[in-house]
Design a protein that fits this description.
70% helix
Length: 252
């Protein structure tokens, strides 16, 4: 196939990586909000939340255990909804219009989360619903991030796997560890040797920065911390829409 005839995607590889890192920041901010502001549970890191649930059950903290259970109740259908919207997409890593639309749905739920934190009292029984909404939005984001990932970061929420791959890549550069995403023919030659290392480190840094920012905002209010995640997702959606609109304009 003539490479010159291959249509360039609306969202370039570098832009996709940048937006992926921003989504990692969203995941970090929501996790920090739920851990320090919504009763001590993780809403995007289910491995951590599994341990939290086990601990609360053993210690007899029924209310906190219920919060942890509602993370799963929210996260699983969130993943399912994201998968439903994206199931017709081709199995590649292109950031399509449908991905942007699905993230728009996440933004709607994050907006509900912001409103809910504004009208609820700290550590009230209403936190169960807030945890559900936060986990649901993270489930949607997981599916979208999984869809557009291209350089070995599992998703924006699986930071342990991302950090492990970063270390493996740094220690053993002679092996191609997890470079292929999707079909075998989609394997990409990197522009410079450290590109993948920088990307994986940036994903971890984005999650860290989002968590730190959310904790800082919690000193103001839970609403401020929730608003951070909403603003970041709206930025991602708006940026993607602009790029995709520009591409349609060039094609017409």
């Amino acid at each position: 196939m003539d490479q010159s005839k291959i249509e360039a995607p609306a969202i370039s590889s570098n832009t996709r990586d940048f937006l992926f890192v921003v989504l990692a920041c969203v995941a970090g901010s929501v996790d920090a909000l739920s851990l320090f502001g919504l009763g001590g549970v993780f809403t995007s890191t289910l491995s951590g939340n599994t341990l939290v649930l086990a601990a609360y059950l053993v210690q007899g903290h029924s209310m906190k255990a219920l919060l942890a259970i509602f993370v799963f109740v929210g996260y699983i259908p969130g993943v399912a909804l994201g998968a439903f919207f994206l199931k017709q997409e081709k199995h590649n890593t292109e950031w399509t219009k449908r991905v942007t639309q699905t993230l728009g749905i996440e933004a709607i739920f994050l907006m509900v989360l912001v409103v809910g934190t504004y009208f609820s009292h700290n550590y009230s029984s209403f936190d169960i619903y807030l945890v559900f909404i936060a986990a649901f939005s993270m489930g949607i984001q997981y599916t979208c991030a999984k869809r557009v990932n291209r350089i070995g970061a599992s998703t924006t929420t699986m930071i342990t796997a991302t950090l492990s791959k970063l270390v493996l890549h740094v220690v053993d550069r002679s092996k191609d560890i997890g470079l292929t995403t999707g079909a075998a023919h989609e394997k990409r030659e990197y522009l410079y040797p450290n590109e993948r290392t920088i990307f994986l480190a940036s994903v971890w840094g984005g999650f860290f920065a989002g968590g730190a920012s959310s904790v800082a905002l919690l000193s103001v209010s839970r609403t401020a911390a929730a608003a951070l995640a909403l603003v970041l997702v709206l930025f991602v959606v708006a940026y993607a829409l602009i790029k995709q609109a520009e591409k349609r304009g060039l094609d017409t």
